[in-house]
Design a protein that fits this description.
8 helices, alpha/beta, five-stranded parallel beta sheet
Length: about 170
């Protein structure tokens, strides 16, 4: 795991597309920092609305459009906080295209996978005797591509593959 610390300055713009509870929690991390916070969302939480009224953030009360790409280009950090997977894919690609640090917050798909991943983890612990063997298994089967597939709603495919791999270990035991 890698941890990155971002030290904002008054020159930095932090962009949020989406204005729900997830966006609010992320904004809270920066609200007292020296930066410009921009939110693009047709609806926001009461707290985000109040921050806007207090001139602590800039809120564009509308849905993101392709005309908003300039906000991504000029951002230091970009948080995608919508529940629209297709839009999130587009926004993520735009963030990568413009080489902006991008955080995609649509964890709903990952939350669906977590209970079953915990069960798989326990099975692997029982089947593979050493930490090294378990670590190798997970490095081979939980890659960046795997997590991207889960976020895109492909958990069933990943689950089948993991189940197949674990069954293979079980049959060798």
């Amino acid at each position: 795991m890698v941890s990155i610390t971002f030290q904002s300055t008054t020159e930095d713009t932090i962009l949020f597309v989406g204005g729900g509870e997830v966006a609010e929690r992320r904004i809270q991390l920066f609200i007292d920092e020296p930066c410009n916070i921009v939110v693009i969302a047709p609806t926001v939480t009461d707290r985000i609305c109040q921050w806007s009224k207090d001139n602590r953030i800039t809120w564009y009360d509308r849905a993101f459009t392709m005309d908003d790409e300039h906000h991504i280009i000029t951002s230091s950090l970009f948080f995608i906080c919508t529940d629209n997977g297709e839009l999130n894919d587009t926004l993520y690609d735009m963030g990568k295209k413009h080489r902006v640090w991008t955080n995609r917050s649509d964890y709903g798909q990952l939350q669906k996978a977590m209970p079953r991943l915990k069960i798989f983890r326990e099975e692997v612990k029982l089947l593979l005797p050493t930490p090294e063997a378990r670590q190798k298994f997970w490095r081979n089967h939980l890659t960046v591509e795997t997590f991207e597939a889960i976020l895109k709603g492909e958990w069933m495919t990943i689950e089948e593959k993991l189940d197949h791999e674990i069954s293979g270990i079980r049959s060798k035991s």
